[in-house]
Each structure stands twice: as C-alpha cells, then as structure tokens.
Amino acid sequence: MLYKRSSELFVEANKVIPGGVNSPVRAFKAVGGTPIFIKEAKGPYLFDEDGNKYIDYINSWGPMILGHAYEPVVNAVIDRAKKGTSFGTPTALETQIAELAVAMVPNIDKIRFVSSGTEACMSAIRLARGFTKKEKIIKFSGCYHGHSDSFLIAAGSGAITFGIPNSPGVTSGTAKDTLLAKFNDIENVKALFESNKNEIAALIIEPVAGNMGCVPPQNEFLSQLRQVCTENNCLLVFDEVMTGFRLAKGGAQELYNVKADIVCYGKVIGGGLPVGAFAAREEIMNYLSPLGPVYQAGTLSGNPLAMAAGYEMLKALNTDAAIFDRLDEKTAYLEKGIRSVLSAKNIIYTINRVGSMISVHFDEGAVCDFETAKNGDNDTFKKFFHGLLKRGVYIAPSAYETWFITDALTYEDLDYTIKAIDEVADEL
Ligand SMILES: *Cc1c(COP(=O)(O)O)cnc(C)c1O
User: Fold this and answer.
1) At what angle do helices 221-231 and 186-195 cross, to 10 degrees?
2) Do 309 and 336 lie in a common domain?
3) How far is the CA of 331 from the centre of ligand 1 (A)?
4) N or C: which end of the chain has fewer CB within 10 A?
5) Which residues are annotated as modified residue N6-(pyridoxal phosphate)lysine in the UniProt record (predicted)?
6) CA distance 333 to 341
7) How many domains does the chain have?
C-alpha cells in the first residue's frame, strides 16, 4: 500500500497542529510510521486519501457500533441541519432522547447532555463532591476518564506514593485529591477507604476497562465495590462512556446487575457526533443547577444535530434487541479465529473479551490490571499492527486499546481478518 498523500498531509498538518493530530491517540507514536488520513467511510470500511481500503476495528474509538455513515443517523443530521444548527434554547428533541435513554438504562431517573465523555466524567465528579460534601475520589490505575485534571493521575510508584500528577499542568493540589487503586483488587480499595475515612466523595471506574486493552472485572469485583461504597457513603460512578449502549441496552449496569449512583456516557450515545451525558437517580440529579447548587453548563450542550444523531442511534439499538447478540456472536467468532491461528503458530498471547470489546495482548499471563496490561511485548505488537495495516485491517495504533466491533462487519470481513492475522503471525 502507498501512503503518499497521507504522508504529505501529515507534513502539512504538523506545521499548524501540534503533532499533526487533534487527539494524541491518532498519531502513530507507539507503533511508528505516519498516521493515515481518512477521506471517507461506509459500513465497516475506511477509505484513505491514497485510495486504500481498510476493515475498521477502531470505529471512531467506539461510537460507530452500527458502522460508518449509518443512514438513519446521516439523514437525521441532514434534516436537522436545514432547520438550524444551534439555538441556545430548549428543544423537544432533548426531551425525546432523554426519555429514550432513561427507558433503556436501569436505575437512572434523569440525564444531562454535554458534548464529550470528558465533560460527562468531570461533571459527574463535581456533582458527587457537591452531593456528598466530600473532596477525595478514587480512580483505578489504567482507567481513563477523559482529560480533565482530576483524572490525569496514572500508575507509577511516585504517583501512588506522592500524588504526583503524571501530566505537567495538573496542580499537586488537584492530584492529592485523587487516590489510585488497583483494578480487580478489592482489598486495595478497602485499605484506601480505611486510611481516608469520611473523605471520599466518589469512586469512579470503567466497569469493563477499555483503556488498557479490554480488562473485565473479575468475579464479584463490581458488586463488592458497590457494597464498600454504600458502607462509606461514597457515590459509585460508572464511567460507561465505552460500555454504555454497547455491552447491552443498559450497558454494564445491566450486564453485571450492579447499580451505580452516577453513570457517564459518551461515544455510542452521540452516534458519531460530539455528545456525552451523565445520569443518576432524581435526588442526585436535582443537585445540579438550576435546581441545585452544583454548577454545570454548555453553550452547545444538547445541540440539535448531536441530539438527532444520538436519538437515531439509540432508537436503532432499542428497536432491534438482537443487535447485541449479533455483536457478541461476531466478536466471539473473531476471538475463536484469532486464537486458532496464533496458537497454531506458537505465538505467546492473551485475549480478553467482553461482548463486542476485545483486545489481543502479546503476553502469556492473565491481563487483569494495569500492571499486567503493561507486560505485553510492544515490539511484537508493532509488527502485528503494521502487518495488519498493510493487509487492509485497521486496528488501534497502540497495544493499550480495545478493538470495537461493529454490527456492519460481515463474516467475510471477519474471515479476511483472521486470514490476515494468520499471515502476519509468520512475521512476528
Ligand atoms: C473515551 C472515553 C472518555 C472520554 O471521552 P471523550 O469524548 O474522548 O472526552 C472517558 N471515559 C472513557 C471510559 C472513555 O473510553
């Protein structure tokens, strides 16, 4: 494949955009090479500026669960655009999508729409702090909740011991209010509650972690967290930006039958437009301005184009309940295929999967937290990534990302992908 035009565009982009990208994960820094500039997409396929075609396993990092340029969404956006793109007033459409979301998800009474997953998580934490009148939060190493200050605290002994922010620009004052816990380690969480008695406003978690590869919660981990939070008057916040409307209609809350106090959404809920949302039971949501004292706002929140896209997406997922089964079957088929070709070639690997979230790790032990996720062999991943790209299969350019399966994929696409992996395995 030739990437001539992409390479030229990347040079131009670098002159006016830092690193040539508006979000770092799009750069190929972890795998080397030049990012591919996409011109258009349809169904499960991407087409780049050089005319190359790819089967897409990123799907805009989650939103395109029914494939690219999904017609009901595209048509709804076109229709709405003709009627005006933003008013800064309430619209009927906002109530329509809110009613639908509340009906699809267990355990929420009210929902507020924002413009990104970052905003949703940031606002959820402010709300939790206002509601509980406490300041500290617990987050898990390897979990991502957007780029707001409180969450940019990751693993590393320095960060754990001293609360040192892992991004310059985050003040140590902010960092000290974020406590880091180990995913899948309930004793570690209990110890944090013990040493910070009556100080923890919220515990935020990706119920299925998707930002260190896909890392499922083990055994009763989520229900144990539920219990510890209740005992400590701490709000349990599920960051379902990735899992919401993907693992089931009601997301991870439904799949694992655990009720969170506040739930954050993004990605699928916007159908590919910039949307996030956070939701909770009435008592908590009424704490938000203009009813309550916790301030939160947005000029483009509930934007008509974004709401039209989100509404069509949720409607499709709500109408055809078989979508989630189909996604699971397709992803299970892919998993089985990858296992058989990698095992046949004696490659050391681990595959994690929950529904249509799947990740391949080049490491033989279980991948159950950030420490084990980091053990993967990055050189092997790089070869794997480029080998697949060359064959027209586009996975995320990082070993720490989940693949997102779309319902638009056909079994032919999956067979092609498995065959490509079989060929690439010879080069690893
Ligand atoms: C993507 C993501 C976010 C951030 O959402 P943005 O829309 O990128 O701001 C937050 N939490 C999780 C779990 C995510 O996957």
Assistant:
1) 10
2) no
3) 22
4) N
5) 267
6) 13
7) 2
Best residue among 144, 265, 400 to mutate for probing ligand 1, ranked by most atoms within 8 Å of CB: 144
- What is the CATH classification number for the domain harbouring 134? 3.40.640.10
Q: How far is the CA of 263 from the centre of ligand 1 (A)?
A: 13
Asked if 298 and 340 sit in the same domain, the reply is no
Residue that terminates a domain, selected from 278, 297, 319: 319
Q: What are 297-327's pLDDT values in tens digits?
A: 999 999 999 999 999 999 999 999 899 999 9
Catalytic site residues?
A: 144, 239, 267
pLDDT in tens, 111-151: 999 999 999 999 999 999 999 999 999 999 999 999 899 98
How far, in Å, is the centroid of ligand 1 from the Cα of 271? 14
Nearest CA to ligand 1 atom 11: 145
Q: What are phi and psi of 244, to 5 degrees?
A: -65, 135
Q: Which domain holds residue 352?
A: 4-69+322-427
The DSSP bridge pattern shows strands 38-42 and 110-114 to be unpaired
Residues 165, 268 within the same domain: yes
Cβ atoms < 10 Å from Cβ of 164: 15
Interatomic CA distance for residues 231 and 202, integer angstroms: 12
| Cα-to-centroid distance, 428 and ligand 1 (Å) | 32
Distance 2 CA to ligand 1 centre (A): 32
Does the bond joining 72 to the residue before it have cis omega, within 30 degrees of 0? Answer: no
Contact 42, 69 (CB under 8 A): yes
* Pairing of the two strands 178-181 and 38-42: unpaired
Residues 175 and 271 in one domain: yes
Cα R_g (the chain), whole angstroms: 21
pLDDT at 159 exceeding the cut of 60: no
Q: How far apart are CA 300 and CA 85, in angstroms?
A: 10
Instruction: Return the best residue to mutate from 119, 238, 242 for the ligand 1 pocket (most ligand atoms within 8 A of CB).
Output: 242
The set of protein residues with a Cβ atom below 6 angstroms from ligand 1 is 116-118, 121, 144-146, 206, 210-211, 239, 241-242, 266, 276
Q: Whose CA is nearest to atom 10 of ligand 1?
A: 145
- Mutate which of 267, 268, 354 for ligand 1? The one with the most ligand atoms within 8 Å of its CB, which is 267
Atom 15 of ligand 1 has which residue's CA nearest to it? 242
Residues 117 and 230 grouped into a single domain: yes
Query: What's the predicted TM-score (pTM) here?
Result: 0.96
